[in-house]
C-alpha cells in the first residue's frame, strides 16, 4: 500500500488560515448586500400565519380557518386506500405533469356538460397543487409589469400579493352593502357592485378581472345579471376573467351557481379555478385544477412545468374515482354534491341563530363555508385605540380569541390597505364544523351574553 508523500491538502490549507490570523472558531463573514427580490416588498405579512398561531395558542373553538373538522365522504377515503394499496405500483410514481390522465378525462367529461363545451382533457384542463397554485399560475402567465387586474372586495387575501409578485397593479372595486328590509337579517345578496363604479375601473391597461363566486369571505353568489354585467365589460374591453369557483357546490336555499364561462363571449377569455379540497371536504389533499381554452392554458402549463411540475399521483387517482361516482349520481339524492350543501345549510342556520341571539348581526351567506357578522354592538368590550393603524376588527378578533377562546378572522384582512378601515366592524366565522364544535362555540357565546347582561 502506497503512503501519500508530504502533508495533505487539508493540512496545507489549515496552516495557511492559521498563518493569516484565522482560527476555526472565527465568526463567518456575513453578506451585506440586499438579498430580497423587489417583487416581495410589502407582501411579507400574512393574516393566516398570525391568526393560526393565535388560535393554536388560545382558542378552545376555532371558527377562523376555512376547513372542515369533519371527515371526507367514505367513498373518497376508500378510493384513496384502494389507490394506495393497489398492485399498480406506478400510482406511487410520477404521472403526467399537467394532470393524471384519469382525472383530467373525468373533469373534462363532467364539466364539459355543465359548460356546454367539448373539453379536450389534454389541453383544456390542468391539475394543480390546490386552487392556490392554479391562481398563482394564472397571474404569472398573464400579468406583465404595469398590467392592471381588477379585484372585487372583499377578496380572498392571496389575490393582491400574487398580482403584485407578477408585476401587476391591483385595482379594487367594492361590493357595497344595502340596508335590508326592517326586521330582516342582512344577506350576502345585499352586497352589490355599483355598475358605473365597476365600469370606471376598466381601462386600456386592464388585463384581467378576478371573480370569486361564491365569494370568500362574504358567501355572496353572484346573480346572472351581475355576471352578465361583468361579462359585457370583459368583452367590451377585451379583458381576461380569472374565475375562482372553488365553492361552486356549496350554495344554499336553492340558489344557483352560474359559471361565467358559459355566458356569451366568455369561454374564450376565462380560466376557471376549481378545488377537490372544497368539493370533497379534503382540503389537505391539495388537488385543484384550471380549465379553459388551450390558447390560455398553454401559458399556465409553461408556469407549471417550470415550478411545481407535478401533483401527487395517488390523490389525483382518488379524486378521479370520486368524480366518476358523482357523474353517475349527478342530480340524484345520493350525490355528495346534493348532500353536502344540505348539511352545511343546517350548520349555517344554526350559527346564524347563535350569533343573532347574542347581539352579533350575521350576514346570511348564500354559499361557501363562511358567515360574516357585524360586531358593532360589542365595541364596549374592546374600546378604540387612538392613532392605532390596526383596524378595529383585527384588535377585536385578537381580544376574542385571547379572552373568550373563540377564533374568527377580521373582515378587514380581505380588503386592500386603503379600504381596511371602511369595513372594520365585521368578523368572519367558518361553519363547516362538527356539531360538537358549533355547540362549543354557542356555549361560549351564551356565556358571553350572560356576562354582558349581568349587573
TrEMBL record:
Protein EC: 2.6.1.64, 2.6.1.7, 4.4.1.13
Main location: cytoplasm
Keywords: Aminotransferase, Cytoplasm, Lyase, Pyridoxal phosphate, Transferase
Pathway entry: Amino-acid degradation; L-kynurenine degradation; kynurenate from L-kynurenine: step 1/2
One GO cellular component term: mitochondrion
Segments forming a coiled coil: none
Superkingdom of origin: Eukaryota
Cellular localization per UniProt: Cytoplasm, Cytosol
Domain Aminotransferase class I/classII large: 61-441
Gene Ontology MF annotations: cysteine-S-conjugate beta-lyase activity; glutamine-phenylpyruvate transaminase activity; kynurenine-oxoglutarate transaminase activity; pyridoxal phosphate binding
Catalyzed chemical reaction(s): 3-phenylpyruvate + L-glutamine = 2-oxoglutaramate + L-phenylalanine; an S-substituted L-cysteine + H2O = a thiol + pyruvate + NH4(+); L-kynurenine + 2-oxoglutarate = kynurenate + L-glutamate + H2O
GO terms under biological process: kynurenine metabolic process
Cofactor dependency: pyridoxal 5'-phosphate
Pfam families: Aminotran_1_2
Entry-linked SUPFAM superfamilies: PLP-dependent transferases (SSF53383)
PANTHER family, sorted: FI04487P, KYNURENINE--OXOGLUTARATE TRANSAMINASE 1
Subunit structure: Homodimer.
Protein family per UniProt: Belongs to the class-I pyridoxal-phosphate-dependent aminotransferase family.
Name the UniProt record assigns to this protein: Kynurenine--oxoglutarate transaminase 1
Naturally occurring in which organism (per UniProt): Podiceps cristatus (Great crested grebe)
Amino acid at each position: 500500500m502506497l503512503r501519500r508523500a508530504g502533508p495533505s491538502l487539508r493540512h496545507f490549507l489549515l496552516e495557511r488560515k492559521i498563518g493569516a490570523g484565522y482560527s476555526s472558531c472565527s465568526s463567518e463573514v456575513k453578506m451585506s448586500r440586499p438579498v430580497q427580490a423587489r417583487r416581495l416588498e410589502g407582501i411579507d405579512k400574512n393574516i393566516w400565519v398570525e391568526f393560526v398561531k393565535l388560535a393554536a395558542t388560545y382558542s378552545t373553538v376555532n371558527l377562523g380557518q376555512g376547513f372542515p373538522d369533519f371527515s371526507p365522504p367514505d367513498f373518497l377515503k376508500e378510493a384513496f386506500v384502494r389507490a394506495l394499496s393497489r398492485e399498480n405500483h406506478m400510482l406511487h410514481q410520477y404521472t403526467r405533469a399537467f394532470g393524471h390522465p384519469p382525472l383530467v378525462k373525468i373533469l373534462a367529461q363532467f364539466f364539459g356538460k355543465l359548460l356546454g363545451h367539448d373539453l379536450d382533457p389534454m389541453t383544456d384542463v390542468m391539475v394543480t397543487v390546490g386552487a392556490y397554485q392554479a391562481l398563482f399560475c394564472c397571474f404569472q402567465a398573464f400579468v406583465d409589469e404595469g398590467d392592471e387586474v381588477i379585484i372585487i372586495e372583499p377578496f380572498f387575501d392571496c389575490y393582491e400579493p400574487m398580482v403584485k409578485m407578477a408585476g401587476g397593479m391591483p385595482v379594487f372595486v367594492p361590493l357595497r352593502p344595502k340596508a335590508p328590509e326592517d326586521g330582516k337579517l342582512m344577506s350576502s345578496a345585499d352586497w352589490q357592485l355599483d355598475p358605473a363604479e365597476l365600469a370606471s375601473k376598466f381601462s386600456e391597461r386592464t388585463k384581467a378581472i378576478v371573480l370569486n363566486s361564491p365569494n370568500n369571505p362574504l358567501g355572496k353568489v353572484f346573480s346572472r345579471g351581475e355576471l352578465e354585467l361583468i361579462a359585457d365589460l370583459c368583452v367590451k374591453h377585451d379583458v381576461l376573467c380569472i374565475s375562482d369557483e372553488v365553492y361552486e357546490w356549496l350554495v344554499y336555499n336553492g340558489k344557483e351557481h352560474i359559471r361565467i364561462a358559459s355566458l356569451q363571449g366568455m369561454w374564450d377569455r376565462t380560466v376557471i379555478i376549481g378545488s377537490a379540497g372544497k368539493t370533497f371536504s379534503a382540503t389537505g389533499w391539495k388537488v385543484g385544477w384550471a380549465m379553459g381554452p388551450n390558447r390560455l392554458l398553454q401559458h399556465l402549463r409553461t408556469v407549471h412545468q417550470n415550478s411545481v411540475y407535478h401533483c401527487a399521483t395517488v390523490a389525483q387517482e382518488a379524486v378521479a374515482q370520486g368524480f366518476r361516482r358523482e357523474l353517475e349520481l349527478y342530480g340524484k339524492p345520493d350525490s355528495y354534491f346534493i348532500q353536502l350543501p344540505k348539511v352545511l345549510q343546517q350548520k349555517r342556520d344554526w350559527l346564524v341563530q347563535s350569533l343573532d341571539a347574542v347581539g352579533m348581526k350575521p350576514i346570511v351567506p348564500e354559499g361557501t363555508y363562511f358567515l360574516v357578522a357585524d360586531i358593532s354592538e360589542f365595541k364596549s368590550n374592546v374600546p378604540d385605540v387612538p392613532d392605532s393603524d390596526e383596524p378595529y376588527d383585527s384588535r377585536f378578533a385578537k381580544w376574542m380569541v385571547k379572552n373568550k377562546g373563540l377564533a374568527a378572522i377580521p373582515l378587514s384582512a380581505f380588503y386592500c390597505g386603503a379600504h381596511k378601515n371602511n369595513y372594520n366592524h365585521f368578523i368572519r366565522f367558518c361553519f363547516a364544523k362538527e356539531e360538537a364544535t358549533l355547540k362549543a362555540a354557542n356555549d361560549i357565546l351564551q356565556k358571553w351574553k350572560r356576562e354582558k347582561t349581568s349587573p
